[in-house]
Design brief:
The structure is a single chain. The chain has 2 domains: 7-128 and 263-283, Probable inorganic polyphosphate/atp-NAD kinase, domain 1 (Rossmann fold, 3-Layer(aba) Sandwich), CATH 3.40.50.10330; 131-259, Probable inorganic polyphosphate/atp-NAD kinase, domain 2 (Tumour Suppressor Smad4). The chain is 20% helix and 36% strand. The chain has 8 helices and 19 strands. The strands form 4 sheets. The chain has a 6-stranded antiparallel sheet, with no helix packed on it. A 6-stranded antiparallel sheet has the order 14-13-12-9-16-17, with no helix packed on it.
Length: 288
């Protein structure tokens, strides 16, 4: 059985009053749970008196001493936590205070009982493949995906792509997605890409609105290296890693993308599963 959790870091999404109320509820239950609660400085600034709520304010690097990071928020906030903690042993557990909450292990209603069980050791940790984009000699890591997208809405990109040194072809499109299994249920899914289980060691190559009757998304081995050149006549291509712009490609510029050097760590309930999430949050979720 996994170890009991003794120290929990806590973060929330921006402008989420319900999540802040949950933070106060967790603080009030700190002694009952038998845990130490910590907050990074950026999170503490969202609350009037975090110490009064039962939290200890810590520097960002001290987060890596926690046993887990509890996120009250949506998939975007959970994703940011996974990225922040890359390279550490600290897993992230999500409580769904967003819209879909695909990465969240605990629901909005009844989260406390589930967290209590996880604190007692009833959990699993899934190591998630990441992807790295090399732009102008700098490396940018992504948990979900690296996306190449057009800047001008009325123009079409011309992208030439290679896999492990072999030129595959040239595509007229709105952009390209290089996704992890985690990101397979994000932008990739909306572009008719396949859904892949979290802990599969593969990458997904997909295009956004490809001008082709023959292209289908491609599943790649983790040792494959993808190189993409912008060969558009005059259009600029933006490079986005997990929603953050990390650079642009002018005509003739190239970006290299490969499996990441580090794994992200997602904590889920002991009985939870990827397929349960697919069924509940992608097929049958309320409010679709």
């Amino acid at each position: 059985m996994p170890d009991r959790l003794a120290t929990l870091a806590v973060v929330t999404g921006w402008r989420n009053e319900n999540a802040r109320l949950a933070v106060a509820e967790l603080g009030a239950a700190r002694e009952r749970l038998g845990v130490d609660l910590v907050m990074p400085a950026e999170e503490a600034a969202k609350h009037d008196d975090p110490e009064g709520l039962g939290y200890r304010r810590v520097a960002d690097d001290e987060l890596r001493g926690a046993d887990a990071c509890v996120v009250f928020g949506g998939d975007g906030t959970i994703l940011r936590s996974l990225g922040t903690l890359l390279g550490s042993a600290v897993p992230t557990v999500g409580v769904n205070y967003g819209h879909v909450g695909f990465l969240a292990s605990l629901p909005h209603d009844g989260w406390f009982e589930g967290l209590r069980e996880m604190v007692g050791g009833e959990y699993r940790v899934v190591d998630l493949l990441t992807v790295d984009a090399w732009v102008n000699g700098k490396r940018f890591a992504a948990v979900n995906d690296v996306v190449l997208s057009r800047v001008e809405a009325r123009h079409v990109l011309h992208l030439e792509y290679e896999v492990s040194g072999v030129t595959i072809g040239r595509m007229l499109c709105d952009g390209l997605i290089l996704s992890t299994p985690t990101g397979s249920t994000a932008y990739n899914l909306s572009c008719d890409g396949p859904i892949v289980e979290w802990d599969a060691s593969v990458m997904l190559l997909n295009f956004i609105a490809p001008h082709s009757l023959g292209f289908r998304p491609v599943v790649l081995r983790p040792d494959h290296v993808i190189s993409v050149a912008n060969v558009s006549p005059g259009e600029v291509c933006e490079i986005v890693a997990d929603g953050d712009s990390v650079g642009r490609l002018g005509r003739g510029d190239r970006v290299r993308i490969a499996a990441g050097e580090q794994r992200a760590r997602l904590m889920i309930r002991a009985e939870g599963s990827f397929y349960q999430n697919v069924e509940e949050k992608l097929f049958t979720r309320e409010g679709r």
